[in-house]
Each structure stands twice: as structure tokens, then as C-alpha cells.
Amino acid sequence: MALLCRLPWLQTCRWGTAQTGRLTGCCMTTGTESYVDWTWVTSGTWMDQAHSVSPKPGMVLLSTPLSKTLLERMWHRTWPHLVADGGATVLQATAPELLPELVLGDLDSARPEVLQSYRDRGVEVRDLSHDQDTTDLEKCLNTAQKDFACKRIFVAGTFAGVQGCFDHTLGALNALCKAEVQGINAALLSDDSCCILLPKGRHCLTAPRQSCCGLVPLGGPVRVTTSGLCWDMKACGLRFGEH
């Protein structure tokens, strides 16, 4: 029962002009106006101006495509910067002038010469190949929390249907679930969409106008109430396999 009470739901959106919306989880429809603030993720405006969030969110770079424009904007508004294995190759090809605090993983994807080039420039490269029970993304999220005390983390890179590997997408969602249990608010961010995990409770988002927004009952049935969306829901039950 305790597990069912914490079943999450997923918010996905595409960038545009912002409009504030609120999403209310089950058993949280009364009481004070206390929300988990997700506007640091869902507001596209911070991409175009100095971001005021303090402390800065951390950043994990995946080994998937990401535009140089988004990479650079995120880089200068986040700290620390952790690169997941093959993400080192992506970073060197996209923005070789940027140096992360750490490159880590089981190091089976990044080219050896790329890793050596970062070592030569003073970047720590951490081989965690002894741990085959977690993904490179999970390793990065765990390290960001333990070594840098990160509570908010952007995970940058294409995450939806990566090169036809849907299992990688599911693995990223599972990493968000595990991070939430550890007290980390993590968000997947790519050039055209973002994805965040909303556990039981009340949440405030800046939902972009004229954009797609999807709520997915990840893990099991949930009951959702929203305000500020085009089509709001009131105590609406969401569950896979049902209408």
C-alpha cells in the first residue's frame, strides 16, 4: 500500500511561450497552497536569459544527440557537469571547449582517445565498470548526489526512442523513479521535449502554450486533478489498459 501511495505520473511538453499550470495528486486536494516547484524545468524562458535558480541544478550529459545551442545554454546555467560514458564523445564533437567536472560509467562506449584527451586537460575519468547492476545514467545521478549534494538535475540528450532502442527510453524513466526515491528531482531534457516525474503530491509547472502535454500513469493507477491546462481533469483516474 505504501508503494501504491507513491505511484508517479509523467509530464511531457515542448517548448513555447509559458503558461503556469498546477497538477494535484491524489489525497492532496485540500489544505495549504504548497506545491513542488517544477518551473525551473518547464519554463522555456530560462533558456534565453540568466537563470535565477540558486543553487544551480546539476547536469548529466547522455551519449545521445543534442544541439550545440541547447548544450551551451544549459552548460552555463548548471553545475556540476557529469558526462555519462559515451557522452564524452558527444561533448567533444559538439563543444570541445567545454570541460566537465567528471566523466564516468562503465566506459564501454566512449572512445579511449576521447577519454585520454579529457584526462590530459585535467578532467577526472572514473571507471565504474565493476558495477554492472546500474546504468551509466543511474551512476551519474548517484554520483551527483553523493559527491556534489545535487537535489535538482537536468539530464540532457535525446531520450525518446533513441535510435529505435525503446528500452533505453524505459531505462531513463526507471532512473528517474530511482532518483525520486533518493530525494533527487531529475528532468530529462532534449531539443524538442522534456520529461519529469511527478510523485504523489501537488506540483506547479509552467506549461508552454500551443504545445503538447501528456500525463502518463507510470507504474500503476493514479488519480489526477489539474488547473491551468486547456482540458483540466478533476479527480480523474489514469491507468494503463483502461479508457
UniProtKB/TrEMBL annotation:
Task: Please indicate which superkingdom the organism of origin belongs to.
Answer: Eukaryota
Domain Thiamin pyrophosphokinase catalytic residues, every copy = 72-185
CDD domains from the UniProt entry: TPK (cd07995)
For this UniProt record, give its keywords in alphabetical order, as a comma-separated list. ATP-binding, Kinase, Nucleotide-binding, Transferase
Q: Which Pfam families match?
A: TPK_B1_binding (PF04265), TPK_catalytic (PF04263)
Q: Which residues form the Thiamin pyrophosphokinase thiamin-binding domain?
A: 211-242
Cross-referenced PANTHER family: THIAMIN PYROPHOSPHOKINASE (PTHR13622), THIAMIN PYROPHOSPHOKINASE 1 (PTHR13622:SF8)
**What protein does this entry describe?**
Thiamine diphosphokinase
The organism's taxonomic lineage, starting at the top? Eukaryota, Sar, Alveolata, Dinophyceae, Suessiales
